[in-house]
Amino acid sequence: MERVLLLSCLHEPVLDDALRALHAHQAARRLLPLPTYESILREFFTKFTSNQLLMNASGVAKSVKVLYERRALFEAIEDHASALRMTNTWTDAVNRPEIDGLQWCVAQVSSIAPLLLAQHVHERFTVVRDKAGKVAAEAAARSALNLSPDPLLLVLHVLLAFPKLDISFRVPREAATPSPHHQAQCIMHLDDMSMYLMQELNVVFDLVGIDISRVAAFCARTIVLDHHPEKTLNFIIARPAFFEPEIAALLVPALAELYAQGVTLVLRYIRASLTDARVAAVVPVHFTRLVEQWTDEYPAADMHTLINEFGLHDEFAHHVEAAAALSRRSSVRPRVVVHDPSVVYYSLPIDRDRVIFVDSDAAVEAAHAILLQSPVVAWDVEWRPDQMPVKSKCSIIQLACASHVFICDVVNHWTDAMQALVEAVVTASVPWKIGFGLVGDVHRLRYSFPDMSCFESLDDWENVVDIQTYLKSTSTKNQQRGTVGLSKCCQDILGFPLDKSQQISDWEARPLTEAQLVYAASDAYCLLDLVRELNPPEMRSMYM
């Protein structure tokens, strides 16, 4: 109800009218008397209004999206509603609407105070338009923080309350006097941080020096979960402490997992480890063995490059011999995954005529009309097995909604219209995008289509759930043993594994075989069934 009433204020055309509507709701005790609501309105009327500072339908739509993204704030307010009603701010909301929200938040003793303060700090720095405004915002924030008996601890709690909040304000280094309890708070809450936040806090608190093993475990987790593994990789490579043998052992499994998915930039760490004889004798072999273990799930994992670059021909003689035997054949192809007739596999639940091979303008138009009206679209990519040292480019992109699967021929029909379709799906807030191991897929897409800006970063995708990442972030068991593959995931959650016998077939051949089409459609559609069963929190309001 709080969000609904706050949203009603956004239908006023200008900020002053919206604030009057807000204060009227608060005076009538329909809305809690929080200065935070005024902060939200000021932010939205600054960011989402037209050049004439008028709120229009587009601005309201953007505001609704942000309100949903900040649902944790409103859920916390609801949880603390009884305590907030007992404050004296009912009178303040009516008689003193100019109350300083920053100072009000600092004065609260409730555990919700850091979250409310995060909103106010964010708003103060969002509405500034010049250097003078930024200086004033910094002064206001500093003045409010100084009211706290432990300003630095409060800042930590604020940052942890909104780990993805991107603000310019930082506690001045000269004013920061870290104590052991500040450092302990950081280490305790590492898993709640983004890589960016951990880097910022490490500068002030020297987290690497305090507990290198704990930070290494954090980095191993983050490099797999983050949309930008290069950020974590750069942090690791720049610090010699991460090349100690016992620390390298914590990092290498995560790096091997990413490499098997096609994220080859992780080799920078393996190459850098060669400068230390203690690590060089162990890390490349350990890394390559772990990659080999992933080849059941990722048959195209490039073992050839690892064996040659790191001189591991003796350690992996069996692989070298197998590769030599394959090279003597008429075509080089990876190990075949055999269909087991005794196994009941996942079966595509839609009619076969709803699987559309998109290789014409008419098919692109039909896909565009259906997919952009769908609340959820599953996303998958296939490519021909790599023939080293040449990497294959994407051959098809599968886009599945509840009623259809569209298999886009990006080899022969990568037209402007198809590019527009793909970009529209990626950048639209609706539909939600569902994938599995999207970091590897986007890495291959970026290699295949370097001119498509939407493949530069997953951060540019609107409303995404990577099921592999979600499982790893929510399951302690998965975190301990490494991420399960898609087929095993289907087995565990849906009761049936995927038939992977077509995974390493020639996806550039045209026409695709019936078995390839059914495999490609199933590989994408099963993601819809998985996300429905998993029901991740960010999608629980969706109708599927």
Automatic annotation (TrEMBL):
MF terms (GO), sorted A to Z: 3'-5' exonuclease activity; nucleic acid binding
Organism superkingdom: Eukaryota
Annotated InterPro entries: 3'-5'_exonuclease_dom (IPR002562), Exonuclease_MUT-7-like (IPR052408), RNaseH-like_sf (IPR012337), RNaseH_sf (IPR036397)
UniProt record, GO biological process: nucleobase-containing compound metabolic process
Matches recorded under Pfam families: DNA_pol_A_exo1 (PF01612)
Every 3'-5' exonuclease domain range: 356-535
Database matches in SUPFAM superfamilies: Ribonuclease H-like
Name of the molecule in the record: 3'-5' exonuclease domain-containing protein
